[in-house]
Amino acid sequence: xxxxxxxxxxxxxxxxxxxxxxxxxxxxxxxxxxxxxxxxxxxxxxxxxxxxxxxxxxxxxxxxxxxxxxxxxxxxxxxxxxxxxxxxxxxxxxxxxxxxxxxxxxxxxxxxxxxxxxxxxxxxxxxxxxxxxxxxxxxxxxxxxxxxxxxxxxxxxxxxxxxxxxxxxxxxxxxxxxxxxxxxxxxxxxxxxxxxxxxxxxxxxxxxxxxxxxxxxxxxxxxxxxxxxxxxxxxxxxxxxxxxxxxxxxxxxxxxxxxxxxxxxxxxxxxxxxxxxxxxxxxxxxxxxxxxxxxxxxxxxxxxxxxxxxxxxxxxxxxxxxxxxxxxxxxxxxxxxxxxxxxxxxxxxxxxxxxxxxxxxxxxxxxxxxxxxxxxxxxxxxxxxxxxxxxxxxxxxxxxxxxxxxxxxxxxxxxxxxxxxxxxxxxxxxxxxxxxxxxxxxxxxxxxxxxxxxxxxxxxxxxxxxxxxxxxxxxxxxxxxxxxxxxxxxxxxxxxxxxxxxxxxxxxxxxxxxxxxxxxxxxxxxxxxxxxxxxxxxxxxxxxxxxxxxxxxxxxxxxxxxxxxxxxxxxxxxxxxxxxxxxxxxxxxxxxxxxxxxxxxxxxxxxxxxxxxxxxxxxxxxxxxxxxxxxxxxxxxxxxxxxxxxxxxxxxxxxxxxxxxxxxxxxxxxxxxxxxxxxxxxxxxxxxxxxxxxxxxxxxx
Length: 701
Description:
The chain is an alpha/beta fold. The protein has helices at 2-39, 41-44, 47-87, 91-103, 106-124, 132-156, 159-163, 165-188, 199-227, 238-255, 260-263, 303-309, 325-334, 338-341, 357-363, 403-415, 457-462, 469-499, 532-535, 561-569, 575-579, 658-679, 689-697, and strands at 275-281, 313-319, 367-371, 389-391, 422-428, 506-512, 517-518, 524-525, 536-537, 539-542, 550-557, 599-605, 618-624, 627-632, 637-642. It has three domains: 1-87 and 235-265, no CATH class; 89-231, no CATH class; 275-697, Alkaline Phosphatase, subunit A (3-Layer(aba) Sandwich), CATH 3.40.720.10. Helix 1 (2-39) runs antiparallel to helix 3 (47-87), helix 3 packs antiparallel against helix 10 and helix 16 (403-415) runs parallel beside helix 18. The longest helix is centred in the N-terminal third of the chain and has 41 residues, at 47-87.
């Protein structure tokens, strides 16, 4: 009975890990249940996606819970030690006096405090979040609690306490409660000196004190019960049942991968299971590449993309559905227009129920992975749906150079692909503002004027009237250096296909989300207009086995990428989208199949833009052959351009070409109204202060 009683004292420590881990798994499974409902997988019949959602959620719940499980085990072990020592007739006085009273001596307190301070100083050299206020606070905390422990120790060593079980139980509970206050109080109040009036800190302090009081009462009752030998068999302890449940749930999380081949079988079929490599390049206007001819400054800026185009189809008139990142890429991976997929506002995101290309291919048995470098295509914007591996660690803002890291992480993901076909999305950001000088290229080295010292985006916009030809050419030179640098890194990724022997089994698509303006229409950047410099983007589709170069001149939309991939793989999903496949537009000899009056629509609709941001825009455009019409609904203006005679869109022909203006205007008005009817309100997410700062630096706000 004595051993069983002792075991009961330490049972919480033995059961804390499986119990906490099991609770983590249960929490993950509950979240997975909600996610499956929100994603609509049951309605779609996506059994594999459902299984993988539960599997990933269970393992993530286990991973999240394990650190807390060990903390709980440590605390439970400490409680068990206290109760065990209180249980013995001789232990409380010796143990409490030794630990509490001696630790509170002046020299020991000084040594402990000095050790804590030295540790924090060492940490400060590596971690920016350790400040001087943290060190001062830690010193005061150590000194204060040393005094409290001294009082407990003095009381515990008194004759009256040694003979009274109730007082001994009080001492044991007090030691644990004070220890809880020390750890939790230090964490809650770590910024007290910097924010002394923060109401949340005082609220959490109140909760901590209340919790500690409950812990003290509970532990005192348990200690007293142990002293009076009122405990029964350890197997009747509530933690035992919890531990068994925790072990079962943890075993489930660990065993789920073993059942994937049976329970996670694909419910969609790719009759041509080619690999798919989708390369997205941020902020790349078509005429800054060398795919269709020399760049803006007459250079070969994209030799690797040019070589890829020579064994594929280069679409010379590809139109983006939006002049900024999120709605444009969202249209590509959903096959929908911005108002249809819902991610068209500055605080927008793709809704959970919208089916992404990655979700379809995962359901068809593909290994899905993505490496991105912009917060507008990160997980919280809905882009990670369907990806088994999604890395947004390179979304570092406008001053980072990330193309090499994107390629490195992409190669790492592709090397781990296993024996399944892969779908990989690699997103490159460096061509986006801020334009950084790349040492491998010297195109921008000649300019030494004033703008080199004052190149800030806000300054650039506010003083654009001061930008002369030399300054603007230098900006384009920097931009083209960024493009060349990005092209070189894409070249490494494409070379891996050849080196790994999978090039002939891989569909490669390269596309940009939007372009960039360099005073083409009086400003810089993107987001606010639908002129060619912002919506005319490069697009290359290189089907596996294609060898004849083809430059297709017909007008196409980049949202057709969704249906193009499904069509190329012959996946039994999305028949309507597959009918809009880019491959169905190209006939023998690069001839255009189907109607020659194909239209491409673009839109910028920013309902949540504040007036001071200067982006309260409601504009849509339609392109048909040589004609393009832009309708500004905010300013109630309409412009018509003949892109063959006027590729720079300098001459508005709306008044002179009334028939074309009326025909395209009616089509655009009807399309815009239909989009508003079908799309409704934008799907939005909360944006924190850090992301707002980054978006402002990038010129979005």
